[in-house]
Amino acid sequence: MSIRVLLVDDQPLLRQGFRMILESQSGVSVVGEAGDGHAAVSATRRLLPDVVLMDIRMPGKDGIDATREITTWATHAGQAVRVLVLTTFDLDEYVVEALRAGASGFLLKDVPPTELLSAIHVVAAGAATVAPSMTRRLLDRFADRLPSTRVSVPPRMHYLTEREREVLRLLARGLSNAEIAHRLVVSETTVKTHVGNVLTKLGLRDRVQAVVYAYENGVITPGKADD
């Protein structure tokens, strides 16, 4: 089945460009467009896309608020709608907030067509499109914007085994599954199982949210290297 995509951007020419790219490929179909956050939320509920390509900076309701509303609604409604944020700058200060709002990742607007299509497929499959190293770089840069309040045991952390906590810490440091497997001297399949358990037990959507969770709850300290 084709991946259903909703395009959200306040610039019609950009929407047209993305539409031309996507509709030239098999397996992807553009089911609608929206020029602002309010229209994006309404179109999402009406059209039920698999992936929403979301601009951040728009008049009225911006992409962050729209992402938060869409992901919250999708969770309660049991709809598998994923949001992929588009931004002009790879260190845009709004990106962190977008990830915290429930976005599954972000891309630059000048991303090559092949990477855009690949990212859409990855997100539609339930994974995240932001490379762990980039997520770490963003969170390190904007660590001062994250909540400073810490608790002795972060919410739900007591559900994790010691090995799962270790996997979470390494994941949040930007390590891939292969790198974690090498560090822990286990198979990559075992790591994938641990990552899946971490996401399930913490009630998280994907690796991106796991990294945000780790930073927000003091599981790791921004900018501090591993021992």
UniProtKB/TrEMBL annotation:
Residues 4-124 form the Response regulatory domain. The keyword Transport does not apply. GO terms for biological process: phosphorelay signal transduction system; regulation of DNA-templated transcription. It comes from the Bacteria. Residues 153-218 form the HTH luxR-type domain. Pfam families: GerE (PF00196), Response_reg (PF00072). The keyword Iron does not apply. Keywords: DNA-binding, Phosphoprotein, Transcription, Transcription regulation. The modification 4-aspartylphosphate is found at D55. One of its GO terms (molecular function) is DNA binding. PANTHER family: TRANSCRIPTIONAL REGULATORY PROTEIN NARL-RELATED, TWO-COMPONENT RESPONSE REGULATOR. This is DNA-binding response regulator. It comes from Nocardiopsis ansamitocini.
